UniProtKB/TrEMBL annotation, chain A:
Keyword hit for Transferase: yes
GO biological process: acetyl-CoA metabolic process
Highest taxon in the source lineage: Bacteria
Transmembrane region(s): none
Domain Hydroxymethylglutaryl-coenzyme A synthase C-terminal: 276-369
Keyword Lipoprotein among UniProt keywords: no
Alphabetically ordered keywords of this record: Transferase
Listed Pfam families: HMG_CoA_synt_C, HMG_CoA_synt_N
Family of the protein in this entry: Belongs to the thiolase-like superfamily. HMG-CoA synthase family.
Gene: taF
Protein name: Polyketide TA biosynthesis protein TaF
Length: 416, 87
């Protein structure tokens, strides 16, 4: 099969959208009177915040649109599969992908669907899509996977409130993998039933913090071991130039790296710290400005590595995806100088820096509206004009999709 | 072979890990009915304490998830003793 795609398959383009606004995490700590000593383990600077006209559909479209704008009409026609992954569904039956398909102007000959498995779902979709592309059943086909979510956490979530993000990551897959050539066949899974975090209603996020963290760390160990059973001679340190891991908050990534290094290498504390700085820290820059992007998180970490390191030679990235519930996967791919130029035009860093920074009081005011985002409502209007001035107005600000109203449960959007 | 791993030696390993990760806690303050959260450990501290205990007791095969329902230090010591006995 692989000989049909001699250049390999993988990520052709990737873009992240981290919300229209942001709040400094230290301001959120002060406003909620959280213990400042815990700030350092969170390793966060800012957190993305949605405006009330944003929802999982707009996040998906606003993440993917810059990728499509840069493609020729012929190339866009080759997107034969659109998958949205989300734990923020807007309907039990109608998918986010159906709305996104419309507002992205994709072909009517494109297959679309939505998938759910907490923060793992995008990776599951990506692997299935890569299998489709690599199979050669439709040579030259492309697939678009979009991870999109919103946060429903308020002050009752304590320290998870400053860690949760909002937004989306769009990943275009195909046989011209300019961003990352995937190591096909190099993967390891570890999955089983556990109740660590869940969203049992459109208004409630629940979580057992310890169970979730412990499960994440067990899954990292076992999915990497499973990867090692498929790939000869794998070494946790020398095989991977960088590591991109699902980042609910950076402190957990650091704990995971430390645990793996202790168990798999003879490194002492100082060597482990140096290795973390060299191979893991570059992945945390963007997550520290956005917060947990759910199933898009590990791909935001990948963008962070590419934009931070700007690799001048080929480099292998080990990727770890974990979704509560739980399903996990360790996999890998190769980035290089072409990855840097492929990302440069989308300027993810510029978008994150350009978000309107909110005060704590503004944040609290918006939160009331944002918590209604997924609640089924037969009819409602969204006062877009009231919130639009909060979007940074610069000459280069691209148009963004906004939720305008809901009519008989049908969400209606417009470009603003 | 070293000395047998009694409950008291296991408790000593637990105390060592706690005071290393939480320097403000003294060993004599670690009452058996308290949990790690009550001793001031945040989630990352709790992970660090447990992984460090598992390292010291050479119990790396014990899944961390098994600790999610353990509610205090006494229960932690009893659980670890069972794991050590099982080898």
């Amino acid at each position: 099969m692989a000989e049909r795609v001699p250049g390999g398959v993988g990520i052709e383009a990737i873009n992240a959208y981290g919300g229209a606004a942001s709040i400094p995490v230290l301001d959120l700590f002060r406003g909620r009177r959280l213990d400042p000593e815990r700030f350092s383990n969170l390793m966060m600077q800012e957190r993305g915040v949605a405006l009330p006209f944003e929802d999982p559909v707009t996040n998906a479209v606003n993440a993917a649109r810059p990728i499509l704008d840069a493609m020729s009409p012929e190339a866009r026609e080759r997107i034969e599969l659109l998958v949205t992954s989300s734990e923020s569904g807007v309907d039990f039956s109608k998918s986010i992908s159906s709305y996104a398909h419309e507002h992205l102007g994709l072909s009517r000959h494109c297959r679309f669907l939505e998938v759910k498995q907490a923060c793992y779902a995008a990776t599951g979709a990506l692997q299935l899509a890569l299998g489709y592309i690599a199979s050669g059943v439709s040579p030259g086909a492309k697939a678009l996977v979009i991870a999109t979510d919103v946060t429903l956490v308020d002050e009752s979530g304590l320290y998870s409130e400053p860690a949760m993000g909002t937004g989306g990551v769009a990943v275009l897959l195909g046989d011209e993998p300019r961003v990352m050539k995937m190591d096909l066949g190099a993967f390891g899974n570890y999955s089983y039933d556990v109740f660590d975090t869940a969203r049992p209603s459109p208004e409630i996020d629940i979580g057992d913090v310890d169970r979730s963290l412990f499960t994440y760390l067990d899954c990292l160990k076992h999915s990497f071991a499973a990867y090692g059973r498929r790939v000869d001679g794998v070494d946790f340190v020398s095989t991977f130039d960088y590591l991109a891991m699902h980042t609910p908050f950076a402190g957990l990534v650091k704990a995971g790296h430390r645990k793996m290094m202790r168990e798999l290498t003879p490194c002492d504390v100082d060597e482990i710290e140096a290795d973390f700085g060299r191979r893991v820290k570059p992945s945390l820059q963007y997550p520290s400005l956005v917060g947990n992007l759910c199933s898009g998180s590990v791909y935001l970490s990948l963008c962070s590595i590419i934009d931070t390191i700007k690799p001048e030679r080929s480099a292998r990235v080990g990727m770890f995806s974990y979704g509560s519930g739980c399903s996990s996967e360790f996999f890998s791919g190769v980035i290089g100088p072409e990855s840097v130029s492929a990302l440069a035009g989308l300027d993810i860093g510029g978008h994150l820096r350009g978000r309107r920074q909110l005060t704590f009081d503004q944040y609290v005011e918006l939160l009331k509206e944002n918590l209604r985002c997924l609640v089924p409502t037969k009819n409602r209007d969204v006062d877009v004009e009231r919130y639009l001035p909060l979007v940074t107005r610069t000459a280069s600000r691209p148009r963004m999709l906004a939720l305008r109203r809901v009519v008989d449960y049908h969400r209606q959007y417009e470009w603003v | 072979m070293g000395e047998p791993m009694t409950d008291e030696r296991i408790r000593g390993v637990v105390h060592q890990a706690i005071v290393r990760v939480l320097p403000r806690v003294r060993s004599n303050e670690i009452a058996g009915h308290l949990n790690l959260r009550e001793l001031g450990a945040d989630s990352v501290d709790r992970v660090e304490i447990l992984t460090s205990i598992l390292d010291s007791l050479r119990l790396q095969k014990t899944p961390l998830a098994k600790f999610a329902d353990i509610r205090n230090i006494d229960a932690l010591v009893a659980f670890l003793a069972g794991e050590v006995a099982r080898g």
